[in-house]
Amino acid sequence: MAKSLTVFLALMLFYMFYPFWDLYVRDDPFADRYQSSLKGFWSHDRCVEAARAQKTYDYRCRKRTNFASLLGTAQKFGDSGIGRNEVEE
Q1: For the residues 58-79, what does the mean pLDDT come to?
Q2: 3-state SS of 56-73?
Q3: Model pTM greater than 0.70?
C-alpha cells in the first residue's frame, strides 16, 4: 500500500511540475499578440519543429507547468467577482 501511494505521489509531482511547451504564432505582422496554435509539447525542440512544419517564422514557444496553469485558473476565478457582495449604484 505504501509503495503504491509513493508511486502515485511521484507521478503526480512529475505531472504537476514537468515543463510543457506551447506554440504561439503571430499571423498578422502588425498584430500585438500571439495566438495559441498548439499545446502540450514535451520539449522545446518539438515545439520549434512544429512551428517549422507550419512554415511560420514569427512564433514563440512558451514553457508552462500544469501547476502554474492550475494557479492561473484559480486566479482568474478569484478575479471574476463571483461570490462577492457588490453594491450597484
Answers
A1: 74
A2: CCCEEEEEECHHHHHHHH
A3: no
Residue with the three cell numbers 467577482? 81
**Could you state, in order of their start, the residue ranges of all structural domains in the chain?**
18-73
Distance CA 67, CA 72 (A): 9
Cell of 61: 514557444
Q: How far apart are CA 37 and CA 54, in angstroms?
A: 10
- Number of residues that this document lists for the chain: 89
Which of 19, 17, 18, 52 is closest to 37 using CA atoms?
52
pLDDT digits (tens, 9 = 90+) for 19-56: 888 899 988 778 788 888 888 889 999 999 988 898 88
Nearest-angstrom CA–CA distance, 58 and 23: 11
Helix (H) or strand (E) holding 16: helix 2-17
Q: How far is Cα 72 from Cα 89, in angstroms, rounded to an integer? A: 31
